[in-house]
Amino acid sequence: MRTSILAAGLSCIAFAAHAQTPVLTVYAGDYFTSEWGPGPAIESGFEAFCGCDLQFSTGDLLPRLMLEGARTQADVVIGLSTDVLARAREAGLFAPHGQDLAALTLPVDWPDDTFVPFNWGHTAFIYDTTRMAEPPATLDAMRSLPDDVTVVIQDPRTSISGLALVLWVKAVYGDQAGAFWADLAPHILTVTKDWSESYGLFTSGEADMVLSYTTSPAYHIMAEEDLTKQAAIFPEGHYFMAETVGKIAATDQPELADMFMAWVLTPEFQKVIPAANWSLPAALPQADWPAGWSDLPLPEKVLFLTETQAEALRVEAVEEWRAALSQ
Amino acid sequence: MARRAVAVIAISVAAFVAALVLLPLAAVLWRAGVWPALAPGDGQALWFTLWQALVSASLSCLLAVPVARALARRRFFGRGALITLMGAPFLLPTIVAVMGLIAVFGRSGLVNQGLGAIGLAPLSVYGAQGVILAHVFLNLPLAVRMILQGWQTIPAERFRLAGSLGFAPAQVARHLEWPMLRSVVPGAFAVIFVICLTSFAVALTLGGGPRATTVELAIYQAVRFDFDLGRAAMLAGVQFALCALVAVLIWRAVSTPGFGAGLGRAPVLQVRGLWHGLADALAIGGAALFVLVPLAAIGLRGVPGLAELPDAVWQGAARSVVVALASTALTVPAALVLALRVARGGRGAGLMDAVALLPLASSGLVLGTGLFLMVQPFAAPSTLALPVTVAVNVALSLPFVYRLLLPEARVLLSDYGRLSASLGLRGLAWLRLVALPRLARPLGFGAGLSAALSMGDLGVIALFASDQTATLPLVVQRLMSAYRIETAAGAALILVGLSFGLFWAFDAWGRRYAAV
Question: Where are the transmembrane segments (chain B) (predicted)?
Answer without folding.
Answer: 47-68, 80-106, 126-148, 184-206, 232-254, 274-300, 320-343, 355-378, 384-404, 445-466, 487-506
